[in-house]
């Protein structure tokens, strides 16, 4: 069996997490969480207004801060800062929710000494509870324009750890840095999910080009992860590009500079997406599903996400049971074009199904490979030459425990 994805020559370097030129950040504890050792408010700031783009939850009950950030970015596609909190989603909170989001924006803008129309707002946590504005004001008063990474902690909910990555590329003789962080562990089934993702870069992007780049790359990264099939009300991915690296403006086209940037940008989004999938609530294994020989890319993506999102597949992986019928059933539930007589499946490179029949595999060997921390499923649909990919995790007893006591 050949590798699913041919290795491309990397034009980027993964480096220790750092802020690109011109960015400041901070995170503090103000009492939104019960644990004083965990930060619960933070912000990001750029020394100059940055090109901005965002993608947002498709849940009909879109939270006030998500709506506000979308409206803010859509005005001029510029941001200079983002203020964020955890523990309270400010979602399904009526008219007061938007009033509070606007106040949070105004307080942060005043502290940053920028216009309110240049500040985004992000909240995550319990749905339906009013935002405790006395604590939000306390948090804004405490936040400073520093070089620390505490903001990456300040957005976490049930996450077990922070999720960060930085890459660097060379453009026009200048070093360009792209850094991202995110939160997400449960209610993950984008478009979008209970996840917040933030990517900042000092690259100079041509006016209007960044939104197309983000939408393009999110579709094959964040939108291809699932933990539990539920989408939330607050999700967004926001990118800021302040241009301080000094490169020539990058257009969203096929130029060498654009492709170099997109290669590194995709690596950041892909790693963050995988980190969310691997950190799924209660999970013990990262699951990657690759689909090849599909009729088209849409079919390949659909099948990959159906398999990784199947509760029966996820439960079988947790139980280390090579029950391939679960995988076949998940494939068949889609409307993708499938050669039902010649579909094949591999599990960690071991043949599981050949031409829609059970391969001659050793149960003990399969159980052993299913005990690994990462499980890779490859599906060959024998219907074309398109490929797709998705990520998720196993479904464990602990997932139920976490979500049965989420507000406790």
From TrEMBL:
SUPFAM superfamilies: DmpA/ArgJ-like. The keyword Cytoplasm applies. GO terms for molecular function: L-glutamate N-acetyltransferase activity; L-glutamate N-acetyltransferase activity, acting on acetyl-L-ornithine as donor. Pathway: Amino-acid biosynthesis; L-arginine biosynthesis; N(2)-acetyl-L-ornithine from L-glutamate: step 1/4; Amino-acid biosynthesis; L-arginine biosynthesis; L-ornithine and N-acetyl-L-glutamate from L-glutamate and N(2)-acetyl-L-ornithine (cyclic): step 1/1. It catalyses: N(2)-acetyl-L-ornithine + L-glutamate = N-acetyl-L-glutamate + L-ornithine; L-glutamate + acetyl-CoA = N-acetyl-L-glutamate + CoA + H(+). Substrate binds at residues 157, 183, 194, 281, 403, 408. It is an enzyme of class 2 (transferase). Keywords: Acyltransferase, Amino-acid biosynthesis, Arginine biosynthesis, Autocatalytic cleavage, Cytoplasm, Multifunctional enzyme, Transferase. One of its GO terms (cellular component) is cytoplasm. The keyword ATP-binding does not apply. The record marks 124-125 as: Involved in the stabilization of negative charge on the oxyanion by the formation of the oxyanion hole. It is found in: Cytoplasm. GO terms for biological process: L-arginine biosynthetic process; ornithine biosynthetic process. The active site is at residue 194. Catalyzes two activities which are involved in the cyclic version of arginine biosynthesis: the synthesis of N-acetylglutamate from glutamate and acetyl-CoA as the acetyl donor, and of ornithine by transacetylation between N(2)-acetylornithine and glutamate. Heterotetramer of two alpha and two beta chains. HAMAP family: ArgJ (MF_01106). Belongs to the ArgJ family. This is Arginine biosynthesis bifunctional protein ArgJ. It comes from Companilactobacillus heilongjiangensis.
């Amino acid at each position: 069996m050949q590798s699913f994805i041919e290795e491309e020559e990397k034009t980027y370097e993964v480096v220790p997490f750092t802020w690109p030129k011109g960015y400041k950040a901070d995170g503090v504890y103000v009492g939104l969480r019960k644990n004083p050792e965990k930060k619960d408010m933070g912000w990001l700031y750029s020394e100059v207004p940055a090109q901005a783009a965002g993608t947002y939850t498709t849940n009909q009950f879109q939270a006030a801060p998500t709506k506000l950030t979308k409206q803010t970015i859509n005005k001029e596609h510029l941001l200079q800062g983002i203020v964020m909190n955890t523990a309270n989603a400010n979602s399904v909170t009526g008219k007061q929710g938007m009033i509070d989001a606007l106040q949070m924006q105004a307080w942060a803008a005043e502290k940053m000494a920028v216009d309110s129309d240049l500040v985004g707002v992000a909240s995550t946590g319990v749905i339906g509870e009013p935002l405790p504005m006395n604590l939000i004001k306390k948090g804004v008063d405490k936040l400073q324009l520093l070089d620390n990474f505490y903001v990456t902690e300040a957005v976490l909910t049930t996450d077990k750890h922070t999720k960060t990555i930085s890459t660097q590329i060379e453009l026009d003789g200048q070093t360009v840095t792209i850094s991202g962080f995110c939160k997400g562990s449960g209610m993950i089934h984008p478009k979008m999910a209970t996840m917040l993702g933030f990517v900042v870069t000092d690259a100079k992007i041509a006016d209007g080009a960044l939104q197309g780049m983000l939408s393009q790359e999110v579709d094959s990264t964040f939108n291809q992860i699932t933990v539990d099939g539920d989408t939330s009300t607050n999700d967004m991915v926001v990118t800021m590009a302040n241009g301080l690296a000094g490169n020539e403006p990058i257009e969203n086209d096929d130029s060498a500079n654009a492709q170099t940037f997109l290669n590194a940008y995709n690596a950041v989004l892909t790693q963050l997406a995988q980190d969310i999938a691997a950190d799924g609530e209660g999970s013990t294994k990262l699951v990657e599903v690759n689909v090849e020989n599909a009729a088209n890319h849409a079919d390949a993506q659909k099948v990959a996400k159906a398999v990784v999102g199947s509760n029966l597949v996820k439960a079988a992986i947790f139980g280390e049971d090579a029950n391939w019928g679960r995988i076949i059933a998940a494939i068949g539930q889609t409307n993708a074009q499938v050669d039902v007589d010649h579909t094949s499946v591999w599990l960690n490179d071991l043949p599981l199904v050949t031409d829609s029949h059970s391969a001659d595999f050793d149960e003990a060997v399969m159980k052993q490979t299913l005990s690994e921390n990462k499980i890779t499923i490859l599906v060959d649909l024998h219907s074309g030459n398109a490929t797709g990919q998705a990520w998720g995790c196993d479904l464990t007893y602990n997932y139920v425990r976490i979500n049965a006591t989420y507000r406790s």
